[in-house]
Amino acid sequence: MRNKAMGLLLGLLFCTPLLQAQQKCTIRMSGVVKSAQGEPLLDVIVRTEGNRTAKTDATGRFVFNKLCAGSYPLSLSRLGFSSESYTIILSRDTALLLTMDPDAIHIQDVEIIGQQQGGLSSSVHRLSAQQIQENKGQTLAESLSDISGVSTIGMGNSIVKPVINGLHSNRILIMNNGVRQEGQQWGVEHAPEIDPFIADRLEVIKGAQGVRYGADALGGVVLVTPAGINMDKALSGNFDLLGRSNGRGGMMQGSLEGIVKSIPQLGWRVQASAKKIGDYETPDYVVGNTGVEELNYSGALTYKWNKNALEAFYSHFGTTLGIFRGAHIGTVADIEARIAHGRPFEEYDFSYTIEAPRQRVSHELAKLKWTHTFNADRSLDVQYGFQRNHRREYDVRRVESDDLPMADMVLSAQTLDVVLKQKNSSFGVQSLIQINNNTPGTGTTPIIPNFDSYNLGLFAIHQFHIGRLHAEAGGRYDFKYLDVAGYRYRRDAVNEDGSIEQYLLTDTRRFHNASGTVGVLYHMTPRLSWKSNIGLAWRAPSANELYSDGLHHGSATYELGDQNLRSEKGLKWINTLIWNTDRLTVTADLYAQLLYDYIYAQPNPDSVRQTIRGTFPLFVSQQHDALFYGADLKLTYQLTHKLQYEATASLIRAKNIMLNTYLPYIPSDRFQQGISYAWLGEDQPHSYVKLVHRFVARQSRYEANSDYAAPPPAYHLIDFVASKQFDLASGRQFNMLFSVDNVCNTAYKDYMDRLRYFTHQMGRNFNLKLSYQF
Question: Where is the signal peptide (predicted)?
């Protein structure tokens, strides 16, 4: 009997593995991890049996495939939250909804260390879901201006770009879905070619971010991040319909996403948006030829298997923008008279027609990214990006057709990034190739020459965590090679027919530099935290700053470069204090930045350039050491359960410390405050009314007689917003938002607007925005 029992036991021991091997382990366990407030949590480490791990994505989702039936332990861990443990019994495919409670001491680390977007010591600011909803239909720069310390520069109301602590254009990097945006961003009137509708998160990282993101990140970084594809539904999506009174136009947007049922690891998304707006109106007159037409679309695929994830993304951005014709002027006397008059002499009728002068820009971006997760603490990202930016600028021609562009530039860019992420460290290699070609046949000399640019960067970042103190340090080295060829004017040689002689310019330049960052995050108390970061960044002078010598048709200015310019080097120290209680949240940024060999375009009021196209203001590239310093403040106070007060303020000071003079085109002091009333409960956060007051001071820190016109007066604006959320069956939502910009129909000009010489900003504007999500 004992022998039979022993035989049965041995049989079970040997047969059980064989039975398990024959069992089909095809069960899929997926889940979503959220905070106690219902926000999805990124980078939660999920562990189960056999030390198998997964990490949640931006939507809080994780997945384990090829599991057998049975009982599984499940643990969740994330910095800033208390660890959680569960036991899950699996018999079929299972979807879980899990929550984590915050850790009081490390609550500030949740967005900083957990996401590691800008480093734990950087000042990172994100637009809320409510702000993104309110700003739908606006340009990227206009949306970001709700963040303290961020303003805009541009031409009128349709061509604007972001300014961070006084720096813009080539000193700010924009990361579009993880890819460094490469277009003709050197021009003030070259707005970012990005459709904000694709973004689920819009963030600004202040400070010199040259180590992680590369050369040119002197002023900061803008992160435009789409939401992760929802792989828990076979089909979901959202639609937006927007209308506005000023410009008598509208926008529409639609997005669909889901999974392939036969391949549940494969997710997909398609999205498209369109815009058509006519001439904008000031309180007193129509600004002719300022309409906008836009058509954008994108698609994305995600495939996950074992410890690998593959992402593919493609987007197309296409726009046509009108340039106010009154900025293209015939004589010196005319330009002086128009600036003195302060508004157009002509009367314009409203129109949707976009005539010359105008811009037509298309931007294509393709991305392929592979991520391999070795374990919960180590992963490898390999990403390739390709971009093609085609910019055409049209002017009024005397002989040829206005349909022939005056400038026709194609910029192709390829990036390859390889980043190894450890538990507390990152190591990376980043490369960039740019090829800029001017299309022949325009009948004009291009403002910038053809060029090839080759860039290579190596970086390493490490973080240290000791109780309440967190620190980080990083270093980077970049090399850039620039090869230039193009025709230029020889101003001391005039042909017999009176035309200016041209010559072939060829040049090669090599730039290289090191970047570094050191920072700390210290939790003084559970409610008060201090962040401090010192960053060294640099950028090489752009092709227009080096070689431009001609009419820039898009901005109606004549620009003159300097071939002897050196690289800019910037050292920025930014300190952030964060006070957080149940009712009050205060964030204060104090910063100072020393910029060696700062390059800027100085308007020259003593000289204009007369060409066959007319007479234009002259802007000349100059280079001096400069000092920027200032403060940004954001405050939110919950007056009652439903009543909330918000305020932001920013001030900046900037001087040429070599000449002891003020720098041109620096934002003036500004203050914004708003009070909102939630007229329904917390389960409907988008049901509220809000009144906003904006104040922008006159820029008094400028050099007299250094510009064509003195800075305009200060102005106050009042805005109104009313929003209502409707919860429908099956988790669907419908949102209706009505807003009024510039309620009092105030006539004003902004110092950062290049068209302020000739016209005012937009008057009162009514908006209606309808959104449906399922």
Answer: 1-21
Structure tokens at 55: 């990490």
Cα dihedral 228, 232, 234, 235 in deg (nearest 10):
-50
Under a CB-based contact definition with an 8 Å cutoff, are residues 414 and 386 in contact? yes
pLDDT tens per residue across span 310-328: 999 999 999 999 988 877 6
CA 552/CA 613 separation, integer angstroms? 11
Comparing C-alpha atoms, which of 222, 221, 215 is closest to residue 568? 215
Q: Which helix (H) or strand (E) holds 335?
A: helix 332-341
Compute CA 123 distance to the chain's CA centroid, rounded to the nearest angstrom. Answer: 15
The pLDDT of residue 676 is above 80: yes
Tokens 């010489």, residue located = 757
Residue with tokens 């910038």: 448
Per-residue pLDDT averaged across 153-169, rounded? 89
Backbone angles phi, psi at 66, to 5 degrees: 60, 50
Residue 127 is encoded by which pair of tokens?
């637009």
d(C-alpha 457, C-alpha 174), whole Å: 17
Which DSSP symbol is given to 469? E
Q: Per the structure block, which two tokens stand in for 139?
A: 């340009």
β pairing state of 528-539 and 568-580: antiparallel
Query: What are the structure tokens assigned to 735, written together?
Result: 């949102």
Can the peptide bond before residue 102 be classed as cis, meaning omega within 30 degrees of 0?
Answer: no
Average pLDDT over residues 154-181: 91
Looking at residue 559, what is its pLDDT? 78
Residue 203 CB neighbour total at 10 angstroms: 21
> Rounded distance, CA 170 to CA 570, Å?
13
How many Cβ atoms sit within 10 Å of the Cβ of residue 355? 15
pLDDT in tens, 129-141: 889 999 998 999 9
Question: In whole angstroms, what separates CA 344 from the centre of its chain?
Answer: 34
Write out the H or E segment, with its range, that includes residue 609.
strand 584-611
The identity of residue 141, as a single letter, is A
CB of 52 within 8 A of CB of 117? no
What span, in angstroms and rounded, lies between the C-alpha atoms of 295 and 259? Answer: 26
